[in-house]
């Protein structure tokens, strides 16, 4: 797993919120794929998805925008992450496989 540490000091005349988007975008740019979940997704589902990804050693970053929760990851790890199936619901895993987490349960 790759760890990133921000070592640039913030001076008294600099405002951190203005700088955050730059380093966040830089961090997000390290990944080559994203899953965009609605911000109102159940916390139970999000927790299960993140724990499943961790258990399967998926390198990911979690980002939050106004109306979305974004899981940035590397291509090839899609089988361990949430996806929206043809039933219009979110499941963990790909549609042609048995889901790890079915929200109907």
Give the key terms.
single chain; 105 residues; alpha+beta; three-stranded antiparallel beta sheet; two-stranded antiparallel sheet; 2 helices; 5 strands
What's the arrangement of secondary structure elements?
Elements: H1 16-28, E1 33-38, H2 43-55, E2 60-65, E3 68-73, E4 82-84, E5 90-92
Antiparallel strand pairs: 1-3, 2-3, 4-5
Please give a structural write-up.
This protein has one domain. The strands form two sheets. It has a three-stranded antiparallel β-sheet, covered by helices on one side. It has a two-stranded antiparallel ribbon with strand order 4-5. A hairpin with a 2-residue loop joins strand 2 and strand 3. It has helices at 16-28, 43-55, and strands at residues 33-38, 60-65, 68-73, 82-84, 90-92. 25% of the residues lie in helices and 23% in strands. The protein has 105 residues and is an alpha+beta fold. It contains two helices and five strands; from the N terminus they run αβαββββ. Residues 15-19 have low confidence and may be disordered.
């Amino acid at each position: 797993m790759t760890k990133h540490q921000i070592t640039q000091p913030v001076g008294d005349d600099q405002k951190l919120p203005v700088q955050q988007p730059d380093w966040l975008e830089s961090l997000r740019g390290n990944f080559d794929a994203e899953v965009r979940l609605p911000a109102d997704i159940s916390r139970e589902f999000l927790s299960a998805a993140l724990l499943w990804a961790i258990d399967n050693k998926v390198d990911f970053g979690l980002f939050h925008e106004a109306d979305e929760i974004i899981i940035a990851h590397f291509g090839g790890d899609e089988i361990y992450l949430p996806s929206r199936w043809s039933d219009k619901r979110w499941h963990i895993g790909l549609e042609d496989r048995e889901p790890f987490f079915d929200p109907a349960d």
